[in-house]
Specification:
This protein is mainly beta. The protein is 7% helix and 42% strand. It has one domain: Jelly Rolls, CATH 2.60.120. Strand 12 (165-172) and strand 13 form a beta hairpin. The protein starts with a helix and ends with a strand. The chain binds calcium ion (CA).
Length: 191
């Protein structure tokens, strides 16, 4: 185990007695305004790809010209295979966008597993960033205060440099346990 990983593991262990709910939730999320109507929406999140190798999410090209098939779930354990809905194994940059539907107000708890770099934004707030090249690495539990039910803009920047690739986002409903984000909770404007 690398020393850095050992330190992270130790910190995680020390932090364990504090539940996610004890941390101050990320607040100030803004719902989509106006809320898009069902006839304008399609299933899953939209994705634009840019195919080039990068080493940090801060250098990601958000203006990729290749429109991919929608991202219909958020549990991608891709190994050394194709990255998301692209036809490439390596050197993939993805700008993923659309809306996430919260069924009720309350404190949700997110977890993000990435390989390589990722940034997650919801309702205009940065929820998580782990931007460098790394093996699978899970975020801590991230409490997020959702002020009202409905659709919120979601944006995920993600890149895979080489070797294996993972992009997973989980949530826990208010008071609940970690679970999959259901397919009907992610939508995008028809394009
Ligand atoms: Ca990788």
């Amino acid at each position: 185990m690398h020393r850095r990983h050992a330190i992270i593991a130790l910190c995680t262990l020390l932090a364990a007695p504090l539940s996610a709910a004890a941390q101050t939730p990320i607040a100030g999320l803004k719902p989509a305004d106006p809320q898009p109507t069902a006839d304008k929406l399609a299933a899953g999140l939209a994705v634009n790809y840019h195919f080039d190798f990068t080493t940090n999410i801060s250098k990601l090209n958000e203006n990729g010209k290749t429109v991919g098939a929608p991202i219909t779930h958020l549990e991608w354990d891709m190994g050394s295979g194709k990255v998301l809905t692209s036809d490439k194994d390596d050197g993939v940059q993805a700008h993923i966008f659309g809306f996430i539907r919260f069924p009720a107000p309350g404190t949700y708890v997110f977890e993000v597993n990435s390989n390589d770099g990722v940034r997650l934004e919801i309702g205009g707030k940065k929820i998580w960033e782990d931007g460098d090249v790394h093996a699978d690495r899970l975020s801590p539990a991230i409490p997020v205060a959702v002020p009202s039910a409905g659709l919120y803009p979601i944006k995920i920047l993600y890149f895979e440099r080489k070797n294996t690739a993972t992009l997973e986002v989980f949530w826990a409903l208010p008071g609940g346990k970690r679970s999959s984000i259901p397919a009907d909770a992610i939508v995008h404007l028809k394009r």
